[in-house]
Amino acid sequence: MSPAKKLPFAVGDKVVHPHHGAAIIKKKVKQEIAGEKRDYFQLEIATDQLTVFVPVDTITEAIRPVISKTAARKVFALFKDEPSEAGNNWSRWYKVLNEKMTSGDIYQVAEVVRDLTFAQQTKGISPALKRMLSRARITLISELGFALQVNEEEATKRLERALPKAPEEE
């Protein structure tokens, strides 16, 4: 990469990693891996005590900017849509949900939260799906917190208010 090329991200930027959620670019470092020196951005993941190194020259393939406040409102609106259900093919549904989780797309992660929350309220879900729901909620809350400029507790409250409640049994 030529030094003249402007990088789309800089130290201090808030970004989203598709597998880890919201993060802050802490610093730019040069590291040698397998005999090759490269520049990396060091990301501090908001939800975990985790540091991730992403090569600067492939940064746009690995991370994206945090959504806007307008996009955050669209995420909340998505919770009003009809949830997708597993039907008879749980393994297929699990695979679809997993693909949504790793897509890096906040709207797909929001769909996972909506669909699994509904399934948990109406039928109950397996331990594996409970873990996925927990991970999806953490990912969603971390990005919503950055987008809305609120702390994790406030982002969680807003998520809870936006999620539909299961109809009460008669």
Describe the model:
With 170 residues, the chain is of the alpha+beta class. The chain is built from 6 helices and 5 strands; from the N terminus they run E-E-E-E-H-E-H-H-H-H-H. The protein has helices at 59-62, 69-78, 90-101, 106-122, 127-148, 152-162; strands spanning 14-17, 21-33, 36-45, 51-55, 64-65. It has a 5-stranded antiparallel beta sheet with strand order 4-3-2-1-5. Strand 1 and strand 2 (21-33) form a beta hairpin. Helix 2 (69-78) packs parallel to helix 4, helix 4 crosses helix 5 (127-148) and helix 5 crosses helix 6 (152-162). The chain is globular and about 60 Å long. The mean pLDDT is 89.
Short descriptors:
Thrombin, subunit H, Methane Monooxygenase Hydroxylase, Chain G, domain 1, single chain, alpha+beta, 170 residues, globular
Summed up, what is this model?
The protein is an alpha+beta fold and 170 residues long.
Q: Outline the biggest β-sheet.
A: 5 strands, antiparallel
Outline type: globular
Strand order of the largest sheet: 4-3-2-1-5
CATH overall fold name of the largest domain: Methane Monooxygenase Hydroxylase, Chain G, domain 1
Gyration radius, rounded:
18 Å
Would you tell me the structural class of the helices and strands? alpha+beta
Order of helices and strands: EEEEHEHHHHH
Helix coverage percent: 40-55%
- Strand fraction equals 15-25%
CATH class of the largest domain: Mainly Alpha
Terminus-to-terminus distance: 64 Å
The low-confidence parts are: none
Number of E-state strands: 5
CATH architecture classification name of the largest domain: Up-down Bundle
Count of the separate structural domains: 2
Mean pLDDT: 89
How many DSSP H or I helices? 6
What is the CATH superfamily of the largest domain? Answer: CarD-like, C-terminal domain
